[in-house]
Amino acid sequence: MSALQWAGLLLLAAFAGAVVPFQSAINSNLARNLGHPLWATLASLLVSVLVLLPVILALRLPLPSPGFISKAPLWMWAGGAFGVCFVALAVMLLPKLGASGFVALALAGQVIASMLLDHFGLFGLVEKQLTVSRVLGALLLIGGVVLIQFGGVFERNGVPVG
């Protein structure tokens, strides 16, 4: 893969992360106006379907194999449940933690879970062993989460941060 292709992938991954606080903030406002976070979660997921279906039709993607659908292990369908969990928790927690606090904590959870998935090669992933540098990187990210979420406490108590 060329350096330009890698740069494109990195930018797309960064964009995927950048949309999370926008989605969560918008859905939190929607939840306030709809009366409950779960209504906003449902609305968000319905809009996702309404946006995705025309894209699938425009690309003329073939229908999935009925044989695969009937034989796929149940864990392969869990992604939708995890999506509901993330959207619903984002709607509920973002107003309490703030956008940066929620995203930082969500990122910490993603890093820890990702490292475990990689280490054990779960769900068909290529194994990437835990190494000192990978664990140190995760600890640095978690340290950043603590500073983002609780740094104000240090600053209010006269403890310089940074």
Automatic annotation (TrEMBL):
Pfam families: DMT_YdcZ (PF04657). Signal peptide: none annotated. The chain crosses the membrane at residues 42-62, 74-95, 101-123, 135-154. Keywords: Membrane, Transmembrane, Transmembrane helix. One of its GO terms (cellular component) is plasma membrane. This is EamA-like transporter family protein. It comes from Pseudomonas moraviensis.
